[in-house]
Write a structure and sequence with these properties.
Number of strands: 0
Number of helices: 4
Largest sheet: none
Shape: elongated
Structural class: mainly alpha
Mean pLDDT: 88
Helix content: 55-70%
Distance between the termini: 42 Å
């Protein structure tokens, strides 16, 4: 901890001013939307999503990926999404 009172005061205010700001944003968001934030399991990410591949192209792509050698599948599992 820094013995300089000015630095201590700056650290205190920069740390503890975040809490009232977050509460203020929460209140403003509630007043604007009139609803509480949604839980992660309630959010729908798939509706209206654009798919660039047709169903048949997606099946071919998945078949190619399952036919890849074991080391390629392990690499993809570890380093890609």
């Amino acid at each position: 901890m820094d013995p300089d009172p000015k630095v201590v005061a700056e650290n205190f205010f920069s740390t503890y001013l975040a809490f009232p700001v977050m509460i203020l944003f929460y209140i403003i968001g509630y007043a604007w939307k009139r609803s509480l934030p949604q839980r992660a399991h309630e959010i729908d990410l798939d509706t209206g999503r654009k798919s660039w591949l047709t169903v048949e192209e997606m099946r071919e792509y998945r078949a190619e990926r399952t036919q890849a050698p074991f080391h390629v599948r392990v690499y993809r599992m570890l380093f890609t999404n």
